# Entry
Amino acid sequence: MIDLSGKTIFVTGASRGAGAGIARTLAGAGADVIGSYSTNRKAADAVAAGMGARARGFVQADFGDPDAAETAWAEAMDIAGGRIDGLVLNHGIFEGASIHDDAPAWQANWARTLQVNLQSAADLARLAARDWVDGAGGSLVAISSRAAHRGDDLDHPAYAASKAGLIAMIKTLARAYSGRGLLAYAISPGWIDTEMAPQEPEARKRALAEVPYGDMAQPEELGKLCAFLLSGACASATGGTFDVNGASYVR
# Structure
């Protein structure tokens, strides 16, 4: 059993889906959890209620705003009393635009996707690294996607590029700072069984047809892997990317 007692973890995008599952699992392992949400305060409150005393609080952050990361980190640090031990970069969007769209739509999709999925994550990682390097240290986990390795459908090249960028950032931070207190990891899931996955029976059947394991990953599976990585149980895995996709993409 992984024990995260005494650690405070900041999980972005924790009000629903995979982020909520990660937050609940980390709390179940003994961590004090701070989450972020974009717009749905009621959903965030419900997740916090499910974590009980381990829920330290939620901060509101629209990561489409270039200033949101710095504000969110400062608010989370304030809630934590000045010390955060781990950061899970889980927030993101999946909005489409293809080469057949006009230039403004294409460019707007790339700008927004890279801002939310990559730039804001990089900004948060920078702030965490500045607090951890050559100090008390900390662990960073970025939730990427199998799309970072195999690409995505014709409507989501920006999404795939943003998720590949996350992995490149993790590798770079690990190479630069693993010996100075910062451990960094990436997780690349395929389909996760949340409301964001296909719900209509035929669409779900098509999605599962490419998964040899035969089922989608559960949010708690990501949470358990995050807990293991954040625990420091295998610190030498820093810089690594861990696939959670039911063998739908094997590297």
User: Anything to note?
Assistant: The helical segments are 17-28, 41-51, 68-80, 103-132, 147-150, 157-177, 201-209, 219-231. The radius of gyration is 17 Å. Residues 3 and 114 are 35 Å apart (CA to CA). The chain has eight helices and seven strands.
